[in-house]
Design goal:
Elements (H helix, E strand, L loop, with lengths): L1 E5 L3 H11 L5 E6 L7 E3 L2 E4 L4 H7 L3 E5 L4 H11 L9 E2 L4 E2 L4 E2 L4 E2 L4 E2 L4 E2 L4 E2 L4 E2 L4 E2 L4 E2 L4 E2 L4 E2 L4 E2 L4 E2 L4 E2 L4 E2 L4 E2 L7 E4 L4 E5 L8
Parallel strand pairs: 1-2, 1-5, 2-4, 6-9, 7-10, 8-11, 9-12, 10-13, 11-14, 12-15, 13-16, 14-17, 15-18, 16-19, 17-20, 18-21, 19-22, 21-23
Antiparallel strand pairs: 3-4, 23-24
GO molecular function: transferase activity
Protein name: Acetyltransferase
Organism: Ammoniphilus oxalaticus
């Protein structure tokens, strides 16, 4: 399978390594608006994001991945491209542990040493970062980012677009509203409403999320 990465920053370097470790994948290049024209250097393309449909016509079996860590920008580019759902590939690092009963949406990335346990559901274009644990029967929405070493204990629900900071822990049955930010190291012991920022141990709401919900 040929894969084109959309975005060329720090997050894309991790994506590249996941792609290159799998013998069934072939990375053919990067699309990013820092490139003004399409170039081909020894079989590796670069070009602006608008060139995406030219590559679709050129490569029949081409898939894409949005390698952008910021949830808001990732969704904006997704909306801008208007590609079919099956145009996106999901990537799973070889060290991740995925239950046979877990479900993963299109365009999602599961990074090294992450765990998805029985009945877990992860939506589309979500990032489950290094060492994060998604326990049984969790529901993680679309365009979410779980930073490294996040722990979602059983039956947690994380709304679309939310960002859970590194090493945060959510106790069982917690619900996080959409487009909400949970600070690094937080211990979430009660529900957090949508469009909020919550920090601390235990986590308390400190204000509105930096995400502009109206821009979504």
């Amino acid at each position: 399978m040929k894969i084109m990465v959309i975005g060329q920053g720090g997050h894309s370097r991790v994506i590249r390594e996941i792609i290159e470790e799998q013998t069934t994948y072939r990375l053919i290049g990067y699309l990013d608006d820092k490139f003004e024209t399409v170039t081909n250097l020894e079989g590796r393309y670069t070009g602006p994001i608008w060139a995406v449909r030219d590559f679709i016509h050129q490569f029949r079996d081409l898939k894409f991945i949005l390698a952008i860590g910021n949830n808001r920008i990732r969704k904006q580019i997704f909306d801008r491209l208007q590609l079919a759902k099956d145009s996106y590939v999901s990537l799973i690092h070889k060290t991740a542990v995925i239950s046979p009963s877990a479900e993963i949406g299109n365009g999602t990335v599961i990074m090294a040493n992450a765990v998805l346990n029985a009945g877990a559901y992860v939506g589309s274009h979500t990032i489950i970062n290094t060492g994060s644990i998604v326990e049984h029967d969790n529901i993680v929405g679309d365009f979410v980012h779980l930073s490294p070493n996040v722990t979602l204990t059983g039956t947690v629900k994380v709304g679309d677009g939310s960002h859970i900071g590194a090493s945060a822990t959510l106790i069982p049955n917690i619900q996080i509203g959409e487009w909400t930010t949970i600070g690094a190291g937080a211990a979430v012991i009660r529900d957090i409403p949508a469009y909020s920022t919550a920090v601390g141990v235990p986590a308390v709401v400190k204000g509105k999320s930096n995400t502009d919900a109206q821009a979504m």
